[in-house]
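TA notes, week 10

Several of you asked for a full example with nothing omitted. So below is the full record: structure tokens for the whole chain, then the designed sequence directly under it. When grading your own attempts, check the secondary structure regions first.
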């Protein structure tokens, strides 16, 4: 039985938390739309007319329905906060590794230092004998979705000089 590397497990957890947050936002948006439709003046006048014309008891249920919708909104907001707290608890507070090696060109070193300060950026720096410093990076959103990434080299076309 083999275990997954910690980095893979961390990315998977981030991706799962991100999926839950997207679901929470979508559900919250839909339920808020329901609340707004139920509170619309046209619905209130329709319920009033129904009560006056037929003596319907449906109008008496409207406050209970509004209360249930508000309770669902509060529950979704608490759930979203718990998910965000779990995501924040899983991230290291201060990364102890310095990914900026000595001898890099100043612009490249500055780029790496800026990205290193964000918790959701993964950087790998290699030294290739032909191309010089090679940097591979991936930047993720707070929800764990890949925002951007790339690879660049100090001398990207050095291999063409053969």
């Amino acid at each position: 039985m083999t275990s997954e590397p910690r980095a893979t497990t961390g990315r998977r957890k981030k991706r799962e938390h991100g999926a839950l947050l997207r679901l929470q936002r979508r559900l919250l948006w839909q339920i808020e739309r329901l609340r707004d439709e139920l509170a619309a003046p046209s619905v209130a006048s329709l319920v009033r007319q129904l009560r006056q014309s037929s003596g319907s008891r449906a109008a008496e249920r409207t406050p209970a329905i509004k209360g249930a919708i508000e309770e669902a909104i509060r529950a979704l907001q608490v759930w979203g906060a718990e998910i965000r707290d779990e995501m924040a608890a899983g991230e290291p507070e201060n990364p102890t590794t310095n990914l900026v090696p000595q001898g890099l060109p100043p612009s490249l070193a500055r780029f790496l230092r800026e990205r290193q300060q964000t918790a959701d950026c993964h950087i790998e720096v290699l030294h290739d004998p032909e191309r010089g410093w090679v940097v591979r990076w991936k930047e993720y959103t707070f929800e764990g979705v890949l925002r951007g990434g790339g690879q660049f080299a100090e001398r990207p076309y050095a291999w063409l000089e053969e």
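Residues 107 and 113 are 10 Å apart (CA to CA). Use that as a sanity check on your answer.
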